[in-house]
Write a structure and sequence with these properties.
Length: 153
């Protein structure tokens, strides 16, 4: 129960930080698309998603292939990643394990985002159970991911 509460808290923390650093054009908030009440979206139009977990949360060895990109849970490496900021890509099967411990993973895939990355580094440096990593498979510039939830921006 405590782990589930931690994951919910982590989800709201990830939503708040990604909305804050949403890296897209400078559209006014009044230009946001109409969405259901309670749905959280960035100025870029990316909305928080609650997704099913792909398989049981079991420990495996070796690399994994996830159908959800980025993955929000499921099988993962038995050894989780350290918390913090990484310049080299942390394998997904490692940070998926961090999700199971209430972690929020912030991912990026952009060459021209140093200002946003600086803000994310500061955030990760001052918040427990957060991890920032490049992620080459990311279909957007940024993502925030926790167990069963993600926000692409």
């Amino acid at each position: 129960m405590l782990a589930a509460m931690s994951r919910v808290s982590s989800f709201w923390r990830l939503v708040a930080v990604l909305i804050w650093v949403a890296a897209c054009d400078a559209r006014e908030l009044s230009n946001l698309p109409e969405v259901d009440a309670g749905l959280i979206c960035t100025a870029c139009g990316g909305c928080a998603e609650m997704l099913p977990i792909e398989g049981p949360p079991v420990h495996v060895t070796g690399p994994l292939s996830y159908t959800q990109i980025p993955p929000v849970g499921g099988p993962h490496h038995g050894c989780w990643s350290d918390w913090g900021t990484f310049d080299s890509e942390v394998p997904a099967e490692r940070w998926v394990h961090n999700h199971g411990h209430g972690g929020v993973v912030l991912l990026h895939h952009c060459d021209d985002c140093e200002a946003e990355l600086s803000a994310l580094r500061d955030f990760v440096g001052s918040h427990a159970r957060t991890l920032l990593s490049p992620y080459a498979q990311l279909p957007t510039r940024f993502a925030a991911v926790s167990w069963g939830h993600r926000l692409l921006s």
